[in-house]
Amino acid sequence: MVKQSLINNWATAICELAVEQKKAKSFTKTLEELKNIFELNQEAIYFLSNKFIDIKTRIKFIEKIFQKDLEPLLLNCLKLIAEREIFSQIEYILNASIKKLWESLEIKKGIIYSTLKIDQKYISTIEEKIKNKINQNIKLENKIDSSLIAGIRIEVANNIFDFSLKGKVEDMKNIILENREQRS
Question: How does it sit in the membrane (predicted)?
Fold first, then answer.
């Protein structure tokens, strides 16, 4: 296992490059796309981190797959990560880099809980409404929570917005308990 400090060093370097090049927003978007690609294609990570495969072959693979669509700086970062034999940690490096870039862009990370996966367009609409409500830039990640029964629950920047059936039931329960206490 690679040390957390090494992952943090890579994330810091990528973030500093993005800020220096004034490309923090585009790097963030690209890194999020890379993260999704590697999450869906774990075999690519296994291939690129396999020390029994010649490094030149792995570098050619990176170039062939990403050269057309990837910023040269990020392409070189992927190559260096492969050369340093830490590609098995690419998901951690990408997550840490994205987090640092969000901080540099003053974006707060939040979670939108739902019983089913939510479409990205709908998440973007929700992000915009919450942004206007709390006056902060936010980025929401969708997580499945089957205990909600229906609806959504959002946690971001020390705020909780509960639009779930479970939350409504809890609210009704609290109102009933308050009314009982007032009658006693």
Answer: Peripheral membrane protein
